[in-house]
Specification:
Blueprint lengths: L2 E6 L13 H18 L4 H5 L3 E12 L8 E12 L2 E10 L2 E17 L5 E2 L1 H4 L3 H4 L21 E7 L13 H10 L3 H4 L4 E8 L8 E10 L2 E8 L2 E10 L2
Helix pairs in contact: 1-5
Length: 245
């Protein structure tokens, strides 16, 4: 079972190159993921009754073709069941006129946490057999998101204070914001001339209102850049982004 949402790339969704912005895509992925999970009876409302919540842990996105301002596309999602403590969910964006024409592919790994103890919970114990019985085995990206290893040298790239506009109703920084912060930490002249090919983010800890997150950057090559956020010496997030040559 999958869930589809048709959308048009509006002005607010597009970057300076008129391409769909990474954080705009993640906002749409976040919405459709909850919509689909709710239809399967393990969305936000059902989880909150159990004093639990879904937390995005890792994601990888590949831009196969450019999705641009005014394009009409379909975003599809499905969940792939549980793997250890992780629950896997994939996404694809495709042309509605050519359903086999994939434009963007993504895979995500989610955790369930108990809101009172902040401890991780196994999906099969919280949701039961539905997490397996409703899973779809198709892969957008077959490999799971691994841990990210930073380059040998990292340089400070300033700090970002978590503002009201950064937090969601779980009162921590929304995952889409880390992509925004990371791209803002890179060279804007480079970004104005290079489209994103692929990126991966690992979310390692929470940040909250008024926290000051230190940003560090490094490179593996001229087209492959790394951004890390730290809070009081603790790694909050890691992002690896590859740009098209």
């Amino acid at each position: 079972m999958h869930c589809d949402r048709h959308f048009e790339v509006y002005t607010s969704d597009a970057d300076a190159l008129q391409h769909l912005k990474a954080n705009a895509l993640l906002c749409k992925m976040q919405d459709i993921a909850n919509e689909h999970a709710s239809a399967l009876n393990f969305g936000f409302d059902q989880m909150i009754e159990k004093r639990c919540a879904w937390v995005l842990s890792r994601l990888k996105v590949r831009f196969l073709k450019e999705v641009c301002w005014r394009d009409q596309v379909v975003l599809r999602t499905w969940h792939k069941g549980a793997q250890g403590v992780f629950s896997l969910r994939d996404f694809k964006v495709f042309d509605p006129q050519q359903p086999d024409n994939d434009l963007i592919l993504a895979t995500t790994s989610w955790l369930i946490i108990n809101l009172d103890t902040r401890r991780m919970q196994r999906a099969d114990q919280i949701i039961g057999p539905d997490i397996i019985e409703t899973a779809k085995t198709e892969h957008a990206i077959a490999e799971v998101c691994d841990k990210l290893t930073p380059p040998a040298e990292l340089l400070p790239a300033g700090t970002h204070k978590v503002h009201y506009s950064d937090i969601d109703f779980n009162l921590h920084t929304n995952n889409t914001k880390y992509v925004e912060w990371s791209l803002d930490a890179l060279d804007p002249d480079y970004l104005l001339h290079h489209a994103i090919d692929e990126f991966q983010i690992n979310f390692n800890a929470e940040s909250r209102l008024n926290d000051e997150v230190e940003l560090w950057t490094g490179s593996f090559s001229k087209n492959e850049h790394y951004v890390e956020g730290r809070l009081a010496g603790k790694n909050v997030f890691q992002l690896l982004v590859k740009f098209k040559a």
